[in-house]
Amino acid sequence: xxxxxxxxxxxxxxxxxxxxxxxxxxxxxxxxTDVSLTGELNDRPNVIGDIYxxxxxxxxxxNPCVLNADGTRRSTCRPxxxxxxxxxxxxxxxxxxxxxxxxxxFNVFDFSVSxxxxxxxxxxxxxxxxxxxxxxxxxxxxxxxxxNSGAFGAIGTTPDVDAGKAVLSIRPQYHVLGGAYRSAPxxxxxxxxxxxxxxxxxx
Length: 203
Prior knowledge:
Blueprint: H1 4-10, E1 13-22, E2 26-27, E3 46-47, E4 66-67, E5 85-86, E6 101-102, E7 106-118, E8 123-131, E9 166-175, E10 181-183, E11 188-193, E12 197-202
Parallel strand pairs: 4-5
Antiparallel strand pairs: 1-7, 2-6, 3-5, 7-8, 8-9, 9-10, 9-11, 11-12
C-alpha cells in the first residue's frame, strides 16, 4: 500500500478519447451568373465527362476543365485535360444533378489525460492536458464548386485550426458537504501550449 507522496503521484489518473469519423459531404456545382434567365444566379452546368478525373487531390478534387457554351475551353483547363463540364446555352438549364460532388472524409481523434490530486478534505487540484487531432490527420474543407470560378475544383481551406495543439490546465476543486469534488469558479490557472507556451492566471 502506497502512502504519502508516492500515493499522490500514482492515484487519480484518467484518460479519455473521442473519435470523430464521417464520410464526405455532398455538394452541388453551380454557376454564379444568370444563365437560365430566371434571376436565381444559381444555375447548374452540363456534365459532359468524368467529374473526378484528376485523382481527388487538394488542388484538383474534381475535374476543373470547363467549356464555355460555345465550346471553347476556360482557363481552368490544363493541357491534356478532358472537359467534364460545360456552361449551358443562355436560357437553358444544365444537366448536373443535385449533390453529385462528394467532399473529403473527416477523421479526428481527440485525447486527454487528467489527474486529480487531493490536497486536504476540502480541496483538490486537477491537472489536465488535451490534444486535438492528436495524430495530426489531415482534414480538408469542401472544394470550390463555383464552375465559373478560377479556383473551381480546388480545396483552399481546412477545418483543423487547432490540429495537434495541446491545451494544459490546472484548476483547484472544492468539496461540498461530503459530496463530489466540484471545479472552483475562481482562482483558475491555465497553461496553454500553442506555438509558444504561455501562462495565464485568472484571479
